[in-house]
Amino acid sequence: MIGDITAGDWLMLIVRWIHAIGAVVWVGGSFFFAFVLRPVERSYPELVRPLIRSIGPVYRDLVDTSVISIIVSGLILMFDRLTGNDASPAWFIVFGVKLALAIWMFYLVWRFRQSDFDPAHAPTGVSARMSWLIGYNAIVFVGVIVFLLASLMRVLYEVTIAA
Ligand code: HEM
Q1: Phi, psi of 154 (to 5 degrees)
Q2: Residue 124: CB partners within 8 Å, gap ≥ 6?
Q3: pLDDT tens digits along 67-112
Q4: Residues near ligand 1 (Cβ within 6 A)
């Protein structure tokens, strides 16, 4: 019954919701950038490059807000699990991998900012393939894996509390 949900549970629900929305906005935004804007830019560079330059600062603020909400809510979720005594060794292993990938994603954003990417001088050849690893494609790729690991953590937690 909905009346059985405690104030603490409601709070954790809000935190989980913020975490999930932050993740959806960040990975979804990167998806749009990598698989819609960039391909269209390749076909119509003169048309799309000025648009990407205008979108840049707004998109950057959106990513900053998402990353901050993901980190703050993620840490709260982590402490909730750690103090609940229901985190199994398997949960910890998956969580460790998820955390490492999340840190890589944060690093990618930081690296991307440092490189001051200018689409007019986009890398080619080997450096283009390298930039795949540090660009939005990588954030999308790692992001969807992190989503999968988060679902696995949820299942592992439910299996532990049902046992
Ligand atoms: C500081 C980094 C992070 C920490 C400490 C963290 C921690 C957590 C924890 C403890 C959970 C709950 C898992 C469970 O149900 O047992 C969770 C769920 C989740 N995390 Fe993270 N996370 C982080 C970063 C990320 C990132 C970067 C993404 C994706 C871009 C992400 C996506 C998710 C999703 C989708 C869920 C499931 C939420 C739900 O159940 O509705 N997390 N996270």
Answers
A1: -60, -45
A2: none
A3: 999 999 999 999 999 998 888 999 999 999 999 999 999 998 888 7
A4: 16, 19-20, 23, 26-27, 70-71, 74-75, 77-78, 81, 99, 102, 105, 143, 146-147, 150, 153-154, 157
Mutate to test the pocket of ligand 1, among 98, 141, 145 (most ligand atoms within 8 A of CB): 98
- In the chain, the amino acid numbered 88 is S
CA 47 / ligand 1 centre spacing (Å): 38
pLDDT digits over 37-75, tens only?
Answer: 989 998 999 998 998 889 888 999 999 999 999 999 999
Handedness of CA 45, 47, 48, 54 (dihedral sign): positive
Ligand 1 nearest atom to the CA of residue 151, by list position:
37
